[in-house]
Amino acid sequence: MLNVFQNSEDWPVVDPLPSYGRGRELPGRRHRSLIYGHNLTDVIITGDNGTIDGQGSIWWDKFRNKTLDHTRPHLVELMNSTEVLISNLTFLNSPFWTIHPVYCRHVIVQNVTILAPLSSPNTDGIDPDSSNDVCIEDCYISTGDDLISIKSGWDEYGISFGRPSTNIIIRRLTGRTTSAGISIGSEMSGGVSEVHAEDINIFDSRSAIRIKTSPGRGGYVKNVYISNMTLVNIDIAIRFSGLYGEHPDDAYDPDALPVIERITIKDVIGKNIKRAGLIQGIKGDSFVNICLSNITLNVSKKKPWNCSNVKGYSELVSPEACVQLNERIFPDHFSDCYQLPDLVRSSSSRNRAAWLLSW
Asked: What string of DSSP letters covers 41-78?
């Protein structure tokens, strides 16, 4: 076990990310991550099922007591790096987000366990941020915030920096959280697209799939395909929030509206679900081409769906989807729904295998 011990009073402080303009929790600079690298190529962080303990309780207490001077550090942050492999390790008790590849490309996180108390604040599991060609597979995560959260910058800073997250593959993920299993946002101002998730098992969690955005974010979330999910004991299975709020400062443009479109969710089974969906877009900026297919949820709420400012299609959904999504997908509107290209999985696998064999 690697114990990453730190005196929080003296822990180094670095500049904020340019796509955020400030620390995520507090204005100004931020604490450097406990394991850090930038401008690297061919990075391997691995071990024979070893453990890295971030000892985050020091930082959680400062957060709760409102005694932080700067944003808490991540456990692992790699910036502007390429060909990254993180595998066969357990990460414990991150002070803040656990694994944060930002401005990276060609990243694989596999066979990783991430654990933190459910009460620990903002201990996201894996947060690809303004990064492309990312594969997350065969992971177990149990934390106090989103298991996976895909991001790309915050309001005017993310819009100006303009680096999207794209080509994100998530498969064979299991976990639980006080927040969402797979989340996009809320910082998504540089855009998020081509997200493919499959074979997902989420239990004892607040929500399974969540998109978070707000007026002022700009950017887009499009071409998302999530399939083959098993859900147990979930408060809200599918949740889209168009008025999430949280802005870095008062300089954001409230007329910078996000584009949310072509989101497909299919082949989902859920037991002990309180509400099937809470899908709330933005007035004058509807979320469109939201497609649901082959979803069966055992729901306890009398009103299983609550939808507003959203348009889309559904088929074989039980309980029946809200009226805004009840047009049939096939055949009239098949082209409006994002479909996973047949070549995506095979080409991604070939590229990943070639890359790994080259090391």
From this structure: EEEEEEEEEEEEE--THHHHHHHHTT--SSBPPPSEEE
Q: Is the pTM of this model over 0.85?
A: yes
Task: Give dist(CA 37, CA 21) in Å, integer.
Answer: 20
CA angle 148, 261, 161 (to 5 degrees): 65
Cβ-Cβ contacts under 8 Å for 25 (sequence gap 6 or more): 63, 68, 71, 72, 96, 122
Residue 2: how many CA atoms within 13 Å on its side-chain side? 17
> Could you report the per-residue pLDDT of 18-55, keeping only the tens digit for each?
999 999 999 999 999 999 999 999 999 999 989 999 99
| pLDDT tens for each residue of 318-346 | 999 999 999 887 666 678 999 977 545 44
Hey, what are 30's tokens?
Answer: 């931020």
Q: DSSP character for 332?
A: T
Kind plus residue range of the DSSP H or E element containing 345: helix 342-357
Active-site residue among 127, 129, 133, 145? 145
Q: Which helix (H) or strand (E) holds 347?
A: helix 342-357
Kindly list the distances between the CA atom of residue 339 and the CA atoms of 26, 269, 342, in Å, as whole numbers in the listed order. 40, 20, 9
Q: Which CATH number fits domain 146-357: 3.30.360.10, 2.160.20.10, 2.40.40.20, 1.20.140.160?
A: 2.160.20.10
Q: How many CB atoms are closer than 10 A to CB 253?
A: 13
3-state SS, residue 150: strand
State the Cα–Cα distance between residues 136 and 142, nearest whole angstrom: 15
Peptide bond connecting 215 to the previous residue in cis, omega within 30 degrees of 0: no
Q: Write the DSSP string, 113-149.
A: EEE--TTSTT--SB--BS-EEEEEEEEEEEESS-SEE
145 noted as active-site residue: yes
Of 282, 293, 310, give the one whose Cα is nearest residue 225: 293
Q: Six-digit token pair at 35?
A: 């394991």
Distance of alpha carbon 24 from alpha carbon 95, whole angstroms: 13
